[in-house]
Amino acid sequence: MSPLPIEDALPSLHNALRRSPNALLTAPPGAGKTTVVPLALLDEPWLSGKKLLLLEPRRLAARAAAYRMATTLGESVGGTVGYRMRLDSKVGPSTRLEVVTEGILTRLLQSDPSLNDYAAILFDEFHERSLQADTGLALALETQRLFRPDLRLLVMSATLDCGPIADLLGGAPTISSEGRMFPVETRYLDHPLSDNNREAAVTQVIRRVLTSEHGSLLVFLPGMAEIRRVERRLLDSGLASDILIAPLHGDLPQSAQDAAIEPAPPGTRKVVLATSIAETSLTINGVRIVVDAGQLRVPRFDPRSGLTRLDTISVTQDSAEQRRGRAGRTEPGVCYRLWTEREQSALTPRRPPEMSEADLAPLMLDLAAWGTSNPQELSWLTPPPAGAVAQAKELLVRLGALDRDGRITAHGSNMAGLPLHPRLSHMLVRSATLHVSDLACEIAALLAERDILRGPAGRAQADLRLRLDALHGALEPAGGAAVDRGAAQRVHREANLWRQLLARSDRTGPPRKESDPGDTGSLLALAYPDRIAQRQPGPEPRYQLANGRGAQFVRPDPLASEPYLVIADLDGAGQWARIDLAAPIGAQDIERLFGEQIVETTAVSWDDKTRAVRASTQRKLGSLLLSEKALSNPDATLVTAALVDGVRRAGITSLAWTPDLRQWQARIRFLRRVDDSGLWPDVSDDFLLATLDRWLAPYLTGITTLDRVKRMDLAQPLTALLTWDQRKLLDRLAPTHVTVPSGSNIRLDYEESDVPVLAVRLQEMFGCTDTPRIAGGKVPLMLHLLSPAKRPVQVTKDLASFWANAYQDVRKDLRGRYPKHHWPDDPLAAPPTAKTKRRAD
Length: 841
Description:
Layout: H1 10-19, E1 22-26, H2 33-40, E2 51-56, H3 59-72, E3 81-85, E4 88-90, E5 97-101, H4 102-111, E6 118-123, H5 131-146, E7 152-157, H6 162-168, E8 174-176, E9 184-187, H7 198-212, E10 216-220, H8 224-236, E11 243-248, H9 254-261, E12 269-274, E13 287-292, E14 295-302, E15 307-314, H10 317-325, E16 333-337, H11 341-346, H12 361-370, H13 386-398, H14 410-416, H15 422-434, H16 437-448, E17 453-454, H17 455-459, H18 464-471, E18 482-483, H19 485-505, H20 520-527, E19 532-535, E20 542-545, E21 550-552, E22 564-570, E23 576-584, H21 587-594, E24 599-607, E25 612-621, E26 624-630, H22 636-650, H23 659-674, H24 685-690, H25 692-695, H26 706-711, H27 715-719, H28 724-733, E27 737-739, E28 745-749, E29 757-761, E30 773-774, E31 779-780, E32 782-786, E33 792-796, H29 799-817
Parallel strand pairs: 1-7, 1-8, 2-5, 2-6, 3-5, 6-7, 9-16, 10-12, 10-13, 11-12, 13-16, 21-23, 29-32
Antiparallel strand pairs: 3-4, 14-15, 17-18, 19-20, 19-22, 20-21, 22-23, 24-25, 25-26, 27-28, 28-29, 30-31, 32-33
Helix pairs in contact: 2-3, 4-5, 7-8, 12-13, 14-15, 15-16, 15-20, 16-19
């Protein structure tokens, strides 16, 4: 075999690790760092009889790397080179190099913080920035600082910004390998592709390439569903007999994964349909053509809802480059990108670290088991977000894994010993005391595995008990539903693993009863206490969760009639998230399992339907109202507060306003406008509504309904807003009436406009030379001068100007309409009169 490019960098790497405990190695895809570097370090003197640990981000990559290195040494896996991962391990007494998935390192560090059996940890493909890799590096740095200054840490990556990681490693030296890749021609689409026809376009490109190019194909698709659909399209299209289709994703059996990686048999070509699992660490022999659909599927955690959902996103620039590099590993190749060159320039440069998007409950339990409840104590490349940390701690306290101070409990230690999400490990540990651990192990395995019911009919059934029936062969597929036998076998294997782990930790060995599907909801509630859900009134199949969120069935489902559910899987989006997987639970089981968390409170609230205060004793689990009993003697303060809330909802106009009170309100508002002394209070509707608890509440004692409030006299609570001096001043500066020249005492209108209005018959103002004023003489009134029939004939704030300029025209009109009235030539000399007609002499 020709030497791999990474071999040129080995002397520098040897020197760096002899001088410094830490180093950073960058090399492009295909340089050989995964399989060459670990073997090259096996003879280093600083090993001192200890082992090397190589971390891989995926099980498939770990197995493939171990087999490749063992083959290089002419050995079988389990000799010098072994591997460890969940559900699979091949390590022997002579093993000196262990290839492990990233979560294994955390377990090793928890069991032995000094990591005495190992001389070095190699972090491969660190640019993927998985949560486990970031955590492993932070803990390894702490081990190096506290216990093992001789422990070597080597970070290896293809597309990593070296500066920050070198700084984190204490200014570690950086060794670069130029690598060697054959030229790859990149071809783009002429026009953007819609998601609706993406799979059809992928199929067309594959068929066209099979006729125009030689060699095998590697096709990148976002997930298993897309792989299955494209595979079906290709099979239905009638491919040549020498074309082999090989799916490749993490849920396939090892034999199927190995078949996808191995070279195509002589005389055949292979089309490998893969997820992003094939981006790094793997060389798929014979591939010289890459077809990239341009998407990947990523988990995203929402701290607000506590839910993780899978999102399909556009590929990032660094991922696209990794995929493209697969075509140039062994010979010149071609990469077909199903997007345009313009779209390429708009792609995000790289994905954010998983740390910034992940559910941190597993991390916080791992850290607590390590010995710290404060992640700030460790050195991170990307520190855990504070919001997600708080959410994780809250869940772990609720599960009993941490105490209120963040320290791990005995129960938490038992949970940490199981390589599962804390929700599921809590369920398993508790199930032993409830004597239902067999069923719990099956549920944990089902939840950790992809749905074993396939097809639209399978996905349309949300009941987890149907999956248990299918697991035991009791379900007859109907309406197109099918049982994925491969997935069911994996569930059986994983359930057996959990049984074995529980048996090791359970010395008393309590009796276990046979699986009873009726316990499914109870066990699920242990894992998801925040997702116990109560059906809401009404025809819609909607549920409220204990965490306050809403969920609903979007398709008809027998579970929709259940009063209580535990929801294991929902889409997490929108006001009413879609329920995808659930099981019923009885009210008595909720009481039995969560009696200590059920809170009994006095609830005094406003009832919009009865428009009255409702008082009751309530028993609640989170946001769920389990029971309610009417309360005859509620606290008067709470009743008043609820009544104020009801008035606020009904609006300020629901109160018993009279015309006089509205005028009183307008008078004060007028003085606030013309007097900037700050003397006058705000009595606007908005302010009064916002301050009901201050001015109205003291007068609501003994009242419980809105109807009673509407009948109460508002004069006393409103006038109480003014002091005695303010009331006197109000009457003087903003009087309700003014006396006009005729002697009439006429009401002012403060509501009609910003300036108070005096509506008065024109004849009553004869002899008056100027406009009457209020507010201490500062504001002239707005005069509405009326005809004898009380119809406006002139509006003015300048009476003198009216007499001098407009009166004569008005006089002519009035003389014609009211001839029996006296309309003098000189109104200032005429006596004012309130009579509607002139009396005879």
